[in-house]
């Protein structure tokens, strides 16, 4: 034991000499040379398991049982030679790799997408919206819904969890019900772009193997006495109780996680002010419930002890009041988690609370690092793909920041309590009591403020941007809601069982306090405080390395070098000059959105689709892409009025001012304001945007008044030229319009890069038209597994016969063309689905 301790001390001394890190040396020397070596070993082993499991989650290719068997052999060998750190690393990799194989075993085959299936399972994570219901289904059986029996393949039989949408006006299904539904399924997938939300990664993190929609549904069993059904009935009761309150949506979201009552206006306010995270039950809410329960129970016990001590001076508690309060707070936190559905963020918070409080109750002195890695190990065993979710990282970062903040606060409180308060008079005594109480309340507020301020770099690094308006909004809203609205709205839930009148009074008070917060957020939204700090678009690994170098400078070197480190950190915010011509075909599913970029300015051709739920690709993909690349949008061309091309017009018109609009027919969502100008797209028009020549070659003006011509053939066909480059954008034209173009403009059709008409539909891309273009690169913008079968096999064959490379967003995600000095011979193409480092779930998709 002494020899190992000396070896560890030598290791610390080596770090002090070589790295020069006095902080590292003093901290760990004090912590671990005094603590049992056994605990240090356990920390090391659990850390090896956690780090290897996280690395396995982001493994670049799919593995097989052959690799797992090799890892298990290495594990056995390392145990024999007593290299337990290596064995725990191999166990972590083997565990995650086995989960990967288990997940991919339920991947649908292309033949399964065309058929309908009967699935039976239990409903979970139900979300109600105005015209539809979304829920997860834990599948127990799958059978064919076709007239002729179809053999169920092993992949389909291995499906365990699917995400379903049911378009209906009446909500006939509840969480916890066992149902049998006729469904149409697709593999789990999403769009892949340089910016925006990665839906596919989120599906994998939730262990969802397929998505689809319900055609018919039958409820087999209703769990009237189950916890899920009781929760649904109580949610319905609270909904009726708050039906007359103006801020009903916010109150339901805060106390039970129900967000279906929040309107699109509410969501817009929350998203623009960066406070939408408050409306989802997470570790923040679980921590608040524990904290308030702990304080209330501790106060009650202390008051009771003081009263009993007056009558029984020899009375003593068998257990410390702090431990009773901690255990009660933990129990209430778990009850709150079950009441809100115990989503994964809440489950992680409950697990971490249980680990930390268990060691506190058992009076075992363990390091914070040991508790954190033990919590992470338990969470990974429960939810193996948790590291794929950003909330996993934010949870542990928040816990670390809370520990630092709590230690700062407790040290300050100890210094205050050590001061010599005179107790010669009752006035001084009351003053000291209120002084200490005020310090505790202000300390809670200070911890939240410090938590958010330290959270900004992590948020910026993980999400790529931080808005100044969100900083101000959270600094004001977090302490306010934590001390007022959230405890009142949550406390009203259990009180409704005892007294509905008292519960309603609390909700009325919470409603009034919430209105004040909404007014504050509305004023911030209307102010000019919103400035975005955007992470430069170089690799995420480079950002992490830069942050680590800055952290080392702050910990190791003198004040002069610390100042230099802060200056280096500021360099990450300096925008890179976007020089040269670039063409981006964004992945917007079954739709089109192409950005032409030159010298930090951009023109957008088509805007993607929008949906009844309020989701639109202009907000989720196009706007984040423009912001991340710091592009100034100069013009928008709407080829025609179909939703998959014009769905984002309303959002872009609202959030991007003073731009030119070009369209064959004015979209209904478009209302020109300010200096924005609208132009009817007709043959012969010319524009000069981005120092490029834009020529309209279709439609003719006479076509616009001809009712016999469909909207697809009225698509705005644009030819973009430079000195040596030619781009042809064709919209959704069909064979009739193609014949007209060949008849009148065949000499103008030749292009280096061309957009395949109508997403590769069999009604377009005739042989003569394709041969007239003779493009080197063909762009196919379509959705993966779309129900139209785009691109058609005949169209692909015709394109291959002509020559040139076919770029398909369904297989490649966003495709970017980089031009070197405008020379077509020096075109570099980047596919974001195939960009290194790829992930194992991406490789499984591209191989399908």
Task: Characterise the protein shown here.
By secondary structure, this protein is an alpha/beta fold. Helices cover 51% and strands 16% of the residues. It is built from 30 helices and 22 strands. The strands form four sheets. Strands 13-12-11-10-9-8-21-22 form an eight-stranded mixed beta sheet, with no helix packed on it. Helix 13 (321-339) runs antiparallel to helix 14, helix 16 packs antiparallel against helix 17 (426-463) and helix 18 (468-483) packs antiparallel against helix 20 (500-526). The two termini are 56 Å apart. 36% of the residues are buried. The model is unreliable at 7-34 and 420-427 (pLDDT under 50).
Give the SSE map.
Layout: H1 2-18, H2 22-32, H3 37-57, H4 65-80, H5 84-104, H6 110-113, E1 116-128, E2 132-144, H7 154-157, E3 161-167, E4 178-187, H8 199-205, E5 210-221, H9 227-241, H10 248-256, H11 264-273, H12 283-311, H13 321-339, H14 344-361, H15 368-382, H16 390-417, H17 426-463, E6 465-467, H18 468-483, H19 485-498, H20 500-526, E7 532-534, H21 540-556, H22 559-571, E8 581-585, E9 594-598, E10 601-605, H23 617-628, E11 632-638, H24 643-646, H25 649-655, E12 660-663, E13 677-680, E14 686-689, E15 692-698, E16 717-721, E17 726-729, H26 735-745, E18 753-755, H27 767-773, E19 777-780, H28 793-802, E20 805-808, H29 809-812, E21 815-820, E22 823-831, H30 840-846
Helix pairs in contact: 1-2, 3-5, 3-15, 4-5, 10-19, 11-20, 12-13, 12-14, 13-14, 14-15, 16-17, 17-18, 18-20, 19-20, 21-22
């Amino acid at each position: 034991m002494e020899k190992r301790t000396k070896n560890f001390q030598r290791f610390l001394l080596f770090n002090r000499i070589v790295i020069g890190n006095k902080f590292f040396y003093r901290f760990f020397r004090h912590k671990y040379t005094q603590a049992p070596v056994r605990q240090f070993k356990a920390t090391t082993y659990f850390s090896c398991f956690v780090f290897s499991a996280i690395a396995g989650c982001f493994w670049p290719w799919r593995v097989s049982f052959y690799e797992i068997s090799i890892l298990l052999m290495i594990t056995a060998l390392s145990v024999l030679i007593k290299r337990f750190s290596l064995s725990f690393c191999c166990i972590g990799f083997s565990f995650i790799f086995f989960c990967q194989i288990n997940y991919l075993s339920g991947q649908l085959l292309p033949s399964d997408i065309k058929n309908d299936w009967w699935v039976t399972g239990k409903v979970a994570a139900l979300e109600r919206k105005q015209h539809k219901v979304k829920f997860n289904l834990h599948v127990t059986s799958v059978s064919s819904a076709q007239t002729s029996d179809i053999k169920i393949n092993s992949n389909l039989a291995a499906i365990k969890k699917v995400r379903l949408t049911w378009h209906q006006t009446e909500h006939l299904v509840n969480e916890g019900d066992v149902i049998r539904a006729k469904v149409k399924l697709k593999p789990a997938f999403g769009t892949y772009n340089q910016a925006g939300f990665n839906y596919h990664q989120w599906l994998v993190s939730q262990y969802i193997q397929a998505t689809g929609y319900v055609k018919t549904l039958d409820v087999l069993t209703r769990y009237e006495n189950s916890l899920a059904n009781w929760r649904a009935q109580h949610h319905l009761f609270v909904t009726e109780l708050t039906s007359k309150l103006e801020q009903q949506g916010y109150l339901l979201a805060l106390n039970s996680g129900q967000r279906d009552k929040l309107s699109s206006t509410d969501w817009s306010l929350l998203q623009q002010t960066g406070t939408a995270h408050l409306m989802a039950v997470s570790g923040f809410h679980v921590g608040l419930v524990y904290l308030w329960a702990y304080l209330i129970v501790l106060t009650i016990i202390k008051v009771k002890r003081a009263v009993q001590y007056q009558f029984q001076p020899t009375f003593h508690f068998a257990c410390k009041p702090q431990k009773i309060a901690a255990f009660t707070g933990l129990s209430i936190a778990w009850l709150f988690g079950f009441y809100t559905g115990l989503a994964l963020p809440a489950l992680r918070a409950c697990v971490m609370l249980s680990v930390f409080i268990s060691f506190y109750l058992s009076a075992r002195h363990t390091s914070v690092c040991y508790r954190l890695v033990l919590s992470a190990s338990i969470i990974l065993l429960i939810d193996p793909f948790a590291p794929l979710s950003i909330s996993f990282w934010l949870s542990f970062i928040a816990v670390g920041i809370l520990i630092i903040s709590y230690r700062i606060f407790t040290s300050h409180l100890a210094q205050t309590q050590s001061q010599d308060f005179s107790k010669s008079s009752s006035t001084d005594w009351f003053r000291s009591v209120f002084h200490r109480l005020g310090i505790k309340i202000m300390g809670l507020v200070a911890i939240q403020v410090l938590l958010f301020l330290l959270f900004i770099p992590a948020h910026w690094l993980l999400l790529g941007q931080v808005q100044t308006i969100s900083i101000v909004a959270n600094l004001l809203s977090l302490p306010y809601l934590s001390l007022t609205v959230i405890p009142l709205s949550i406390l009203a839930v259990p009180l409704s069982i005892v007294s509905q009148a008292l519960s309603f009074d609390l909700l009325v008070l919470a409603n009034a306090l919430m209105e004040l917060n909404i007014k504050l957020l509305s004023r911030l939204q209307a102010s000019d405080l919103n400035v975005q700090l955007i992470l430069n678009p170089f690799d995420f690994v480079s950002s992490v390395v830069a942050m680590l170098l800055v952290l080392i400078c702050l910990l190791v070197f003198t004040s002069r070098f610390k100042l230099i480190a802060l200056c280096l950190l500021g360099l990450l915010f300096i925008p890179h000059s976007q020089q040269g011509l670039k063409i981006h075909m964004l992945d917007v599913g079954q739709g089109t959105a192409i950005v032409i970029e030159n010298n930090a300015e951009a023109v957008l051709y088509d805007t993607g689709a929008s949906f009844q739920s309020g989701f639109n690709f202009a907000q989720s993909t196009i706007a984040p892409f423009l912001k991340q690349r710091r592009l100034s949008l100069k013009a928008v061309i709407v080829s025609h009025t179909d939703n998959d091309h014009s769905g984002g017009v309303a959002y872009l018109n609202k959030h991007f001012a003073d731009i030119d609009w070009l369209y064959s027919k004015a979209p209904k969502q478009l209302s020109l304001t300010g200096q924005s100008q609208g132009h009817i797209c007709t043959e012969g028009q010319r524009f000069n945007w981005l120092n490029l020549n834009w020529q309209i070659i279709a439609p003719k003006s006479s076509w616009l008044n001809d009712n016999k011509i469909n909207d697809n053939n009225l698509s705005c066909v644009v030819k973009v030229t430079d000195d040596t480059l030619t781009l042809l954008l064709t919209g959704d034209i069909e064979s009739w319009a193609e014949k007209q173009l060949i008849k009148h403009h065949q000499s103008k059709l030749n292009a280096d890069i061309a957009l395949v008409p109508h997403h590769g539909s069999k009604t377009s891309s005739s042989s003569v038209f394709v041969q007239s273009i003779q493009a080197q690169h063909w762009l196919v913008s379509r959705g993966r597994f779309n129900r139209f079968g785009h691109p058609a096999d005949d169209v692909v064959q015709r394109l291959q016969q002509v020559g040139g490379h076919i770029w398909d967003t369904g297989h490649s995600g966003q495709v970017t063309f980089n031009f070197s000095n405008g020379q077509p011979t020096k075109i570099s193409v980047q596919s974001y689905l195939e960009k290194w480092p790829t992930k194992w779930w991406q490789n499984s998709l591209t191989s399908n």
